[in-house]
Design goal:
Structural class: alpha+beta
Shape: rod-shaped
Number of strands: 10
Strand content: 35-45%
CATH architecture of the largest domain: Sandwich
CATH superfamily of the largest domain: Immunoglobulins
């Protein structure tokens, strides 16, 4: 035969269950509304042409967004020259208040194409391509 609790004890258990449920719901809501990196987009700087050993006129720029499509400051972006030689001015940058991170590319000495990647952990990579032009008269 089931035990029947006195009314005061039932109310206390019900109140405890409701408080536990409200606490769990608050945690769940917080997890769903906490901004987190969700999208990486190219903002500027792709498809430039530079002379050998020259720096791009426009910085390579990416923008990071959260799951609500709001810009996300404070995110680390790693820049790397994947092919074509040369270097980036800052191999690691952090997004500003507009969610934008940038670096400049300085070409290597050999004409051709250079690919530079921008990576945010968990979001993947965007690749910028810069053409290193042949010197005039060559």
């Amino acid at each position: 035969m089931p035990t029947i609790l006195p009314p005061a004890r039932r109310r206390a258990l019900l109140a405890l269950a409701l408080m536990a449920s409200a606490g769990a719901t608050g945690c769940l809501t917080k997890d769903l509304t906490t901004p987190r990196p969700s999208r990486l987009e190219s903002e500027a700087g792709n498809a430039q042409t530079v002379a050998p050993l020259a720096r791009t006129n426009t910085p390579l720029m990416v923008q990071v967004f959260d799951q609500f499509r709001q810009v996300l400051p404070g995110q680390t972006v790693t820049w790397r020259v994947e092919s074509g030689g040369g270097s980036v001015s800052n191999p690691t940058t952090v997004t500003n208040s507009n969610g934008i991170a940038q670096t400049f590319y300085t070409a290597g000495g050999t004409p051709g194409l250079a690919d530079i990647s921008a990576t945010v952990a968990g979001l993947g990579t965007i690749t910028f391509t810069v053409t290193i032009a042949s010197p005039s008269g060559s």
